[in-house]
Write a structure and sequence with these properties.
The protein is α/β, with parallel strands linked by helices and about 375 residues long. It has 12 helices and 18 strands. The strands form 4 sheets. It has a 7-stranded mixed sheet, with helices on both faces. Helix 2 packs across helix 9. The longest helix is centred in the C-terminal third of the chain and has 25 residues. About 45% of the residues are buried. The mean pLDDT is about 90.
């Protein structure tokens, strides 16, 4: 089949690997000017390990493993440890789970994509028009093209989902908080391990033992109306949320936010949909079932979803039957991953000082 994949990050690269390997003719378009970089350490867990083996990338993923922060220390305003959580006891599915940098996983997947897959960057999809036999894709500044199938792998704020299924707000379920990330937070490089500092409704965590220090500033908030492409506006939201906080290393973290050029910010949200296909348009990864930043399962679901879609297309005689099979196979994985994200919100940044104290006491040796 002639297949258009929209999105060139983990989900899109995974789709390119597995669909290309099965002989489909693929075009991958990406709105960014090149392969996206950024993000922090991610996990390849559970069923995704078998998916990685089937893709032929498991050995490379193993070789790129970084040391996970096995203990998370909850500190007070002076930096004194008030409680410690051994995350391996509860967070990971098995000792085989792998943590590695998101950029490294993207490199590994990109190297496995068949050579005849066409990548086009700086490409904007504007419309999709379907009939019984295929989909016509329209672009900004390029003639329309015809495909047998369109795969939306374009993330939380998916253009494909908006065009084919409806407005973002119909499917994006805000979980009541926002997160900002700074990689290379060198003002915090003197720290070690994972350190977490709370004030009610807000948290600063520093993962200091990654290849470069990473600061995360998250805060509880109702839905905010902002331009998710405006980095300066996103920085202002974080700076305002922590404006009255001076404890521990918050001033250093805010200085990093002001200075950095790799800032990441988004809602903590899940994409919840009754189905992930509409005619000959199908969603894979965060665009269809983003489990949220705090689940640790986004990349794993993207890989599993791509492999499940490719297998279904190989097994079934019609596209319609294949997409139904894909949805049946993925639903249990998605439901499990999304339920995980809801478990950790209350203890990661409690809304009250009493909640913070109770959490710390529960993890105090």
């Amino acid at each position: 089949m002639d297949i258009l994949v929209v999105g060139g990050s983990i989900a899109g690269l995974s789709a390119a690997v597995v669909l290309g390997a099965r002989g489909h003719r693929l075009t991958v378009i990406e709105q960014a000017a090149g392969r996206r970089s950024g993000g922090v350490a991610i996990d390849v867990r559970g069923r995704a390990l078998e998916t990685a083996r089937a893709m032929g990338v498991l050995d490379d993923i193993h070789a790129s493993r970084i040391t996970a922060n096995a203990v998370w220390n909850f500190v007070d305003s002076e930096g004194s440890v008030q409680g410690s959580w051994h995350i391996a006891d509860e967070l990971y599915d098995s000792p085989d789970d792998i943590e590695l940098l998101r950029d490294r996983l993207a490199e590994i997947l990109a190297a496995r994509v068949p050579r005849d897959v066409v990548f086009r960057y700086d490409e904007t999809l504007t419309d999709l028009t379907q009939d019984a036999t295929g989909v016509t894709a329209s672009y900004a500044g390029r003639a329309p093209e015809r495909f047998d199938l369109v795969v939306g792998a374009d993330g939380l704020h998916s253009t494909v989902r908006r065009i084919a299924f409806g407005p973002e707000r119909d499917f994006l379920h805000h979980l009541g908080s926002y997160v900002g990330l700074v990689r290379g937070a060198h003002r915090l490089a003197d720290l070690s391990g994972m350190q977490i500092y709370n004030v009610p409704g807000r948290v600063l965590s520093v993962a200091a033992d990654n290849p470069e220090p990473v600061a995360m500033l998250a805060f509880r908030s109702p839905w905010l109306d902002y331009d998710f492409r405006d980095t300066d506006a996103q920085k202002r939201l974080v700076l305002e949320a922590f404006d009255d906080v001076s404890g521990w290393r918050v001033p250093d973290a805010l200085a990093e936010v002001r200075a950095c050029d790799n800032f990441y910010f988004d809602s903590i949200a899940q994409v919840r949909m009754p189905g992930w296909s509409s005619g000959r348009v199908v969603l894979v990864g965060d665009s269809g079932y983003g489990p949220s930043f705090f689940s640790g399962m986004g990349s794993s679901l993207a890989m599993i979803g791509a492999e499940s879609l490719a297998a279904a297309l190989s097994d079934e005689t019609s596209v319609e039957n294949a997409l139904r099979q894909y949805e049946r196979q993925m639903r249990p994985h998605v439901d499990d991953a999304q339920s995980m994200a809801l478990d950790g919100m209350d203890w990661l940044f409690p809304e009250t000082q009493e909640g913070i104290d109770e959490r710390n006491a529960a993890w105090r040796k």
